[in-house]
Amino acid sequence: MLISNTLPRVFLYDQQGSKLVLSDPSITMQPEAVLNMYAQTYPELTTAKIEGPEIKNDRVEYIFQAMLGTKG
Known about the structure:
There is one protein chain. The chain is mostly beta strands. 12% of the residues lie in helices and 38% in strands. The chain has one helix at residues 31-39; strands at residues 9-15, 18-22, 49-56, 59-65. It has a four-stranded mixed beta sheet with strand order 2-1-4-3, with helices on one face. The longest helix is centred in the middle third of the chain and has 9 residues, at 31-39. It is elongated. The model has no long low-confidence stretch (mean pLDDT 90).
């Protein structure tokens, strides 16, 4: 018998080496839409790139990597 399970998605925000775990608001949302939603709370995510997906610990992980720039 073949059993199929959907792995939960988790979004990680990499804040200078420590990762903040962000829950998946809806399985129907594309990762870009999730990033845009969280950018309202974390403005530095407006220029972030998405890394992944990568399967780890029985879940699908996406990493939001903020692109820090310099002024001047």
